[in-house]
Write a structure and sequence with these properties.
This protein is an alpha+beta fold. It contains seven helices and 14 strands. The two termini are 17 Å apart. A seven-stranded mixed β-sheet has the order 1-2-8-9-10-11-12, with helices on both faces. The longest helix is centred in the last third of the chain and has 17 residues. The radius of gyration is 19 Å and the shape is globular.
């Protein structure tokens, strides 16, 4: 991927003339100055808690703001191996890669798994195998409910509550769904879902990866801080005859007025450049990758925004934009692909028409040799 990486680096450097996005490898650490929670794993899985490889902004302002927000959330949840009941995949299997923003639990993830990926979680009884084909689901705006989160009242470190309707009080969170469905999971919270008022259980929210394949070498990329903390999550899967790196990410809609004036409203471009550089830094440590797939809600308003162009330059095997919007009139959700010279290629890229009660539609593609 050397030529591709060189082109991507040039594009990012050109974008850097308008804003700083420099990233640095931060090694393995808890992720927060005082991480409050390491959640138990879903049934049948192993939890490694917050043991993640981290990349963070090299800018002191970004790191300080992110650390403030980080102290309001719980720890990561990592379940690297799915439960029993899934057939052992073969190198010839075609794997579906899906991205979907589920609107902080407003989307019906159980129905999505059933209707779009063929996994009926209620059928997963002891001794019975599911016929669901291999998949990797890259999700944004998932939530985790816990009474062990830090108590935080309204402050600049806590965004407002997103409480989509219909979302019943008994709705399962991302950890509970992974356990019910026997899936492997990497979940890293970005922020609290509103302050503690005593009227509802504490929640945090962020990005996650769910799969019926093993998720190895998990990592997190703490993106340049704009309006709020955004953490991309990633892991490696064995698929399409090689090792495929998968990433789930979500960019800000807009920054504060001060940041907008200072950067010329380069919010999403700056975060996209940071995401690309973070992925590149980690890829340098794993040169044997056959492909990288990024599922991301860019929050873009147009298909030719700088953030989209940067991602397409860095991931040149990405499917062409099909002219379909995924959130109302906006082309927000994307799948980007970068392959080694002899790596797999993407096919059957399409939008998922049923939003399953989310305010976003998903996208899916398949990798094949």
């Amino acid at each position: 991927m050397v030529k591709t990486r060189a082109a991507a680096t040039l594009a990012v450097l050109l974008a850097g003339c308008a804003f700083s996005h420099s990233m640095r490898h931060a090694g393995i650490d808890p992720g927060c100055r005082d991480e409050a929670l390491t959640s138990p794993a879903p049934a049948g899985g192993e939890s490694r808690g917050p043991r993640l490889e981290w990349v963070r902004s090299a800018e002191e302002r970004d790191r300080n703001r992110s650390a403030d927000w980080c102290e309001t959330v719980g720890g990561a949840v990592i379940v690297p191996v799915p439960g029993p009941g899934f057939p052992t995949p073969s190198p010839e299997d075609t794997v579906a890669f899906v991205t979907w923003n589920m609107h902080v639990g407003g989307g019906d993830l159980i129905a999505f798994l059933d209707h779009e990926l063929g996994l009926t979680c209620s059928d997963l009884r002891p001794g019975r195998q599911t016929t669901a084909a291999p998949f990797v689901l890259l999700v944004q705006e998932v939530f985790r409910r816990s009474d062990r989160l830090p108590v935080v009242e309204s402050s600049g470190r806590v965004p407002w509550t997103i409480d989509p309707q219909p979302r019943p009080d008994e709705a399962l969170d991302i950890v509970e769904i992974a356990g019910l469905c026997g899936l492997s999971l990497v979940y890293v919270p970005s922020a609290r879902n509103g302050p503690d008022t005593g009227s509802r259980p504490g929640e945090d929210k962020g990005n996650a990866i769910l799969s019926n394949l093993d998720l190895a070498d998990p990592f997190a990329i703490d993106l340049p801080f704009e309006a709020g903390r955004r953490v991309a999550v990633g892991a490696d899967v064995v698929a399409a005859g090689g090792v495929v790196r998968v990433v789930s990410a979500h960019l800000d809609v807009a920054s504060t007025l001060f940041r907008t004036l200072m950067t010329g409203n380069q919010t999403r471009a700056r975060q996209a450049a940071g995401l690309i550089e973070g992925i590149d830094l980690l890829e340098d440590r794993r040169p044997d990758l056959s492909a990288t797939v990024v599922g991301v809600d860019l929050n873009t308003w147009a298909p030719n925004e700088t953030a989209v162009l940067l991602m397409r330059t860095a991931f040149p095997e990405s499917p062409a934009w099909d002219g379909r919007n995924t959130r109302g009139p906006f082309p927000t959700d994307h799948l980007f692909v970068r392959s080694a010279e002899d790596g797999p290629r993407a096919s059957q890229h399409r939008i998922i028409e049923n939003s399953h009660r989310s305010d976003h539609k998903g996208r899916v593609l398949f990798l094949h040799r």
